[in-house]
Design a protein that fits this description.
Blueprint (H helix, E strand, L loop, with lengths): L15 H5 L5 H8 L3 H7 L14 H14 L3 H10 L1 H6 L12 H11 L4 H15 L7 E10 L7 H19 L27 E9 L4 E8 L8 H10 L6 E3 L7 H10 L2 E3 L18 E3 L4 E3 L8 E5 L11 E6 L1 H5 L15 E6 L7 H5 L3 H7 L3 H14 L9 H26 L1
Parallel strand pairs: 1-4, 4-5
Antiparallel strand pairs: 1-2, 2-3, 6-7, 8-9, 9-10
Helix pairs in contact: 4-5, 4-16, 8-16, 15-16
C-alpha cells in the first residue's frame, strides 16, 4: 500500500541540513530545480492504495537510483552512504535520524515499477521541458551520434580472452623495449562481431542520442550493439520534437548520410549536416534491408550481423559508358553455410558470398554541393560536443559497462544517466547566467 499524500517530516534535527549543506551543493540545486512529483504521478498506478503494508515513496526510490547514477554507486553503496551523508538524506527527503532502505528494495523497484514504463523518453522530456522553461535551449539544431556500452557479462571465449591479454602484454613490453617487436610472433588479426572498427569488437549495447547545441540531450534510443547508427535517425528527430525541441538542422557523422536520411531531410523541412561517405550509392541499393553499412568498421554487415571480411574496388564498370565503379564486399562463406538467414541469401555449394554497390560519382548531387558550403562546414564544427558528452556518460556515470543484463535494464540505466547529465548541464547554464 502507498499513501496518497506525502508525509510531512517532523524531526527536531531538520535544521541540521541548513547548517551542513551549502547553497551550491549539487543535490540541493537539483532538489530546488526539479519537482519530482511527476514520478509519483507516473508510478501511482503500480501500487496498491488500500491494502498491505505502507510502501516506501516511489519518489524516494527513484531518487536513490538517481544518486547511484550521479555518483556511480552500487545498490549497496548508495544505501550505505545514505546512512551518514547528510546531503543524501536531505535529497531523499529523510529526517537525519531516519533509517535507510535495504539495498534489495532497489532491485524490486526496478523490476516491479519501472520495467513497463517508458522511463527514457519521460526523463529526457522532463529535462528538455525544464531547459526550455529556463530559456536555456535556444538553438534549433540537434547533434546525433551513438555510444557503445559493454555487457556486464564476459562475452569472450578463452581464446579471445588470451588474445586480449596478449595484446596488453605486447603494449607493455614495447613501451620498455620497442626492439622486441622483431622477436615476438606475428599478431593474430582475428575479427569479431559487434564492431567498433574493422578489427576490434565489442559485445553489448548502443545508445543512439540527439543533443542540442547547448549540450542538453533531447532524445535517445537503446539498441543491441550490432545496430547501425543511420537507421535510428528518424526516431531521434521524432522524439526530439515530441520533447518540445524545434529541429531545423541535424548534425552527424558519415553514418547518417545514407540516401533515405538525405531524402527525409529534404521532405521534412530540415537540413542534414552529414558528409557523404565515399561508398554511399549513386541510387537506391539492392537489398537495403539485408545489408547495412557499418561506418565504424568501414564494411557492410548482413542481416545476421556478420561483417564483411574484405572489400575490393572493381573499376571495370568505369570503362563502360555512363557506368560508375563498384565496391565488392566479401563475406565469410563458412558463416553463411550455417547462418539462420541463409535461405534466399546463400546458394548451396557457392565458394564465395559477396555484396556489391555502385560508388557515388562526383556528378551534381545536392548533398555533395551542400557539404562544400561555408554554412555546412561551420555547423559541422559542433560535432565535437556530443563526443564530449559520450565521454562524460562513460567516465563519470559508469556508462561504459552495463550494470545489469537485458535491453530493458540497459534502457533504465541510460534513462538515469542521461537524466543526471542533463540536470547537471542545466544547473551549470543557470549559474552562468
Amino acid at each position: 500500500m502507498i499513501e496518497q499524500q506525502q508525509k510531512l517530516l517532523l524531526s527536531p534535527y531538520m535544521e541540521i541540513y541548513e547548517l551542513v549543506i551549502p547553497k551550491d551543493n549539487l543535490l540541493r540545486q537539483i532538489k530546488e530545480l526539479v519537482d519530482f512529483g511527476f514520478i509519483y504521478e507516473e508510478l501511482i498506478d503500480k501500487y496498491c492504495l488500500d491494502n498491505g503494508r505502507n510502501a516506501i515513496s516511489p519518489v524516494r526510490m527513484f531518487k536513490y537510483l538517481l544518486l547511484k547514477s550521479i555518483y556511480e554507486l552500487s545498490d549497496i553503496d548508495v544505501a550505505e552512504r545514505s546512512k551518514y551523508d547528510m546531503s543524501f538524506k536531505y535529497f531523499l527527503d529523510m529526517a537525519p535520524e531516519e533509517a535507510v532502505i535495504n539495498p534489495s528494495s532497489l532491485t524490486k523497484f526496478r523490476k516491479l515499477r519501472l520495467k513497463d514504463m517508458n522511463l527514457l523518453d519521460m526523463l529526457i522530456g522532463k529535462t528538455v521541458q525544464i531547459a526550455l522553461e529556463k530559456g536555456i535551449i535556444k538553438s534549433k539544431s540537434i547533434i546525433v551520434d551513438a555510444t557503445h556500452t559493454k555487457s556486464r557479462h564476459n562475452q569472450k571465449t578463452p581464446r579471445q580472452a588470451l588474445l586480449e591479454q596478449s595484446k596488453k602484454l605486447r603494449r607493455a613490453v614495447y613501451e620498455i623495449d620497442e626492439s622486441m617487436k622483431e622477436l615476438f610472433p606475428a599478431k593474430n588479426t582475428e575479427a569479431k562481431t559487434g564492431h567498433k572498427t574493422a578489427d576490434t569488437a565489442f559485445f553489448g549495447y548502443k545508445t543512439h542520442m540527439a543533443m542540442s547545441e547547448e549540450r542538453i540531450i533531447t532524445a535517445a534510443t537503446v539498441t543491441n550493439g550490432e545496430k547501425t547508427d543511420g537507421k535510428e535517425l528518424p526516431k531521434l528527430i521524432q522524439k526530439s520534437r515530441e520533447a518540445g525541441m524545434e529541429v531545423k538542422t541535424v548534425i552527424g557523422d558519415k553514418a547518417y548520410s545514407e540516401q533515405q536520411n538525405i531524402e527525409a531531410a529534404q521532405d521534412g523541412g530540415y537540413e542534414l549536416i552529414s558528409r557523404l561517405n565515399s561508398v554511399i550509392t549513386q541510387g537506391k541499393r539492392t537489398k537495403e534491408d539485408e545489408f547495412e553499412f557499418n561506418k565504424d568498421a568501414g564494411m557492410y554487415q548482413c542481416k545476421a550481423g556478420h561483417l564483411a571480411v574484405r572489400k575490393y574496388l572493381d573499376r571495370r564498370e568505369k570503362e563502360k559508358k555512363n557506368k560508375n565503379p563498384r565496391m565488392i564486399y566479401f563475406f565469410d562463406i563458412e558463416k553463411c553455410k550455417y547462418c539462420p538467414y541463409r535461405d534466399g541469401c546463400y546458394k548451396e555449394g557457392a565458394k564465395k558470398k559477396t555484396y556489391s554497390e555502385t560508388l557515388k560519382s562526383d556528378a551534381h548531387s545536392k548533398q555533395a554541393e551542400f557539404q562544400e558550403t561555408e554554412h555546412f562546414k561551420e555547423k559541422m564544427k559542433e560535432r565535437y560536443k556530443i563526443a564530449a558528452k559520450n565521454s562524460e556518460l562513460k567516465h563519470r556515470h559508469g556508462y561504459d559497462t552495463a550494470s545489469s543484463s537485458g535491453l530493458i535494464n540497459m534502457e533504465i540505466q541510460g534513462a538515469m544517466a542521461i537524466f543526471a547529465v542533463n540536470l547537471k548541464r542545466i544547473i551549470i547554464l543557470i549559474n552562468e547566467k
